[in-house]
Amino acid sequence: xxxxxxxxxxxxxxxxxxxxxxxxxxxxxxxxxxxxxxxxxxxxxxxxxxxxxxxxxxxxxxxxxxxxxxxxxxxxxxxxxxxxxxxxxxxxxxxxxxxxxxxxxxxxxxxxxxxxxxxxxxxxxxxxxxxxxxxxxxxxxxxxxxxxxxxxxxxxxxxxxxxxxxxxxxxxxxxxxxxxxxxxxxxxxxxxxxxxxxxxxxxxxxxxxxxxxxxxxxxxxxxxxxxxxxxxxxxxxxxxxxxxxxxxxxxxxxxxxxxxxxxxxxxxxxxxxxxxxxxxxxxxxxxxxxxxxxxxxxxxxxxxxxxxxxxxxxxxxxxxxxxxxxxxxxxxxxxxxxxxxxxxxxxxxxxxxxxxxxxxxxxxxxxxxxxxxxxxxxxxxxxxxxxxxxxxxxxxxxxxxxxxxxxxxxxxxxxxxxxxxxxxxxxxxxxxxxxxxxxxxxxxxxxxxxxxxxxxxxxxxxxxxxxxxxxxxxxxxxxxxxxxxxxxxxxxxxxxxxxxxxxxxxxxxxxxxxxxxxxxxxxxxxxxxxxxxxxxxxxxxxxxxxxxxxxxxxxxxxx
Amino acid sequence: xxxxxxxxxxxxxxxxxxxxxxxxxxxxxxxxxxxxxxxxxxxxxxxxxxxxxxxxxxxxxxxxxxxxxxxxxxxxxxxxxxxxxxxxxxxxxxxxxxxxxxxxxxxxxxxxxxxxxxxxxxxxxxxxxxxxxxxxxxxxxxxxxxxxxxxxxxxxxxxxxxxxxxxxxxxxxxxxxxxxxxxxxxxxxxxxxxxxxxxxxxxxxxxxxxxxxxxxxxxxxxxxxxxxxxxxxxxxxxxxxxxxxxxxxxxxxxxxxxxxxxxxxxxxxxxxxxxxxxxxxxxxxxxxxxxxxxxxxxxxxxxxxxxxxxxxxxxxxxxxxxxxxxxxxxxxxxxxxxxxxxxxxxxxxxxxxxxxxxxxxxxxxxxxxxxxxxxxxxxxxxxxxxxxxxxxxxxxxxxxxxxxxxxxx
Lengths: 559, 409
Hints:
The complex is a heterodimer of chains A (559) and B (409). With 559 residues, chain A is an alpha+beta fold. Chain A is built from twelve helices and 20 strands. Chain A has a domain at 182-207 and 325-415 and 450-480: Cholesterol Oxidase, domain 2, CATH 3.30.410. In chain A, the strands form five sheets. In chain A, strands 1, 2, 6, 7, 8, 9 and 20 form a seven-stranded mixed beta sheet that branches. In chain A, helix 4 packs across helix 12 (531-549). Chain B has 409 residues and is mainly α. Chain B has two domains: 1-248, Ferritin, core subunit, four-helix bundle (Ferritin, Up-down Bundle), CATH 1.20.1260.10; 250-409. Chain B has a two-stranded parallel sheet with strand order 1-2. In chain B, helix 3 packs antiparallel against helix 8 (223-239) and helix 11 packs antiparallel against helix 13. Chain B is globular. Chain A binds chain B through residues 43-44, 47-48, 178-179, 181, 184, 187, 214-219, 221-224, 226, 234-237, and chain B through 49-50, 53, 56-57, 59-61, 63-65, 68, 188, 190-191, 220-222, 225-226, 229.
């Protein structure tokens, strides 16, 4: 075994790669993390960049990063990906090339998939279910212990009473921390809608599980309500992948940064041992390992496999690219709810995620948000309006702005996107700063999902009605959606090597020592935020790799 | 109290619960005072941008730990009412005598710094598995002898309370009405355990001790560990030669005037405007406590929704009035007697009656008091005030204006 440079090379030091690296290094394996980005600038420097940025966008803290020319900006879906021009629909989610990965600017929500999310074909078969909608090769119960483990590793705050048994999805262990306390606005809305019924489903506001400390956990401070989870937590109360990068390094794993992997070599026996990469200076290098793990999310992972011409005997690499369709709606409450405090969202509604309707249309989650109309540029928009149109200044202006801003509500939805093989990542003829092909993306959400989006919009309108909100903005274009930042699919997991890229252990069907970690393996996506599920899968895969390597695993499940 | 002592009567148990309530309450104020003193912005001077980020982490932990002490007070109140007592919210004013509690260290109001952190570590150190000489060395300040540091035994107090809960017959002991128990459904307070029997009472005590008072070996995420980490962090900054000055130069143990001293050896604030703000802080803080203590005693059977509105007004006083006034006072001068120092809130418990059992009258007294305090706030707003103080005064006015419509009790 020692003839190779490392036992395991993990490509990508985001949450999935870092967890695999940590668990295997802890088991005694010689692990290398190859990361295309860098740990710089520091958290404090990025908070500073955000503080002085004229426009506060998800990318504004990261603008000094040395990786700018090599990745998409979170602020634009077209500055890096090759996408067909308007009027074609766009894939709108982007990522951050950085040690720790895109969890640096994630919101931190960690709901699980539901039992039926793993069983879409067997539960909801019929003429209107999209053809690529399949069952996972594993079920909720297979993943449940690993969900608990991922919650412990990341530090998830949640309410066992509210979530145990949701749509038949039991929880075998309580959350490691009690829930992030609902905001005043959450409670006010709960009082007005809980128990009301909309088209056979009952509203019930639940605290959203989050990898955000509600107490001091794992040596990190509790959330202090700095309210800028997106683009980054200034104090590290929100989990990000850098936590497990540090843990992996503490267990002896190596981390090489600014190393962009360009190709994986296939040996004559079909195994993959050699990893080629470029430094930022463009110097080609390579490293060998017994096991290779690609954990470069659902765009860079298929891009690398396609560049390497491996793992694709099924022709499925790059196909079934998914996201969630997200949409915000806005209303004014009849009284002050004091948004702009605490995490941007602390509660949501799960009632519409599952049911017989999924034969015909997508399920969805609804989030109650604490950020007022900031997506509509509040409070600046109000200030400009009052100054220019009503000539208010001084205390009068202050009071008018407060009166309005304090009543702002934003609701949002996250709608399941059904897999479609035509929605895909390919290699573009356009090159990036290192001369590598950029990702070419084709993405048109299926009607199944647009029907779900329409239903979600109707539901949010009903919620606004129930709370007596006015000045509603529900949007007018039924095909308008935002990216949720949930890049999923493209290397689907399945039992049949002809129809899928990896098996139930996330091992490539074509290469016995090549594993994929991350949301690229999701065959379907349900409606929850994907990070907890991909973390659970990564931990499960790490154990399978440890068995394959013959190193002793040290599971923490009873800790 | 010897470690072997056990409690066998309700009266003794109630007395100990009062002591626990005083302790949790006093310690929460001490943590809050230190948290209020932390600088918020580099424009305050003495900190760099990176140091400000460090302060943010410390503030998050300090405010959180203070909120857990408030939870402990609430849990002690639930145990108290479950066994037939009434919530006890009084305590001696600051500074409190070293030997008044089994801490061997006074409870004081002191800005954030090496000395206050040392006290905090002593409040929270584990009862078993003594931290040893390393911690004594950490706690040693210039001119001190580490051997003089004596560890107290808050864990012992809770061990005695637990012995009472275990020794006294369950049916005989738990005579409070179950509907009298305060829960998170009624008051906007997480992790509150309803106490109805021995098991739930022990669970409440366990929650308190596990979070920081250290009856067993300390844990990574305990209050004790958090304070040790902060102290190490602060000392490391000093060792690197930084002129890092994370705290505002607040005075120690301030008092808002004669009528609020009642015997405490406090330092009267000497600036006429600051003293008025500090007096308003004390009045709002006292009103909040009276409302909460009353809510914990009130049997809400059948009127839960109404009680909720009353509790919500009391809890809102914390972030909307007490917090901004407290932080803002540390931006106001302490007065000529204290050159270079800023003021601070004294957490003075103003002398007043418990709210009456009759709900309508309790509500009426509160409504009237809100209006009186709002009038004082209006007077203060005629003066130049730091932004947080101004915000606290405006919030108080708004709460007074809406109290009658909002509180349905």
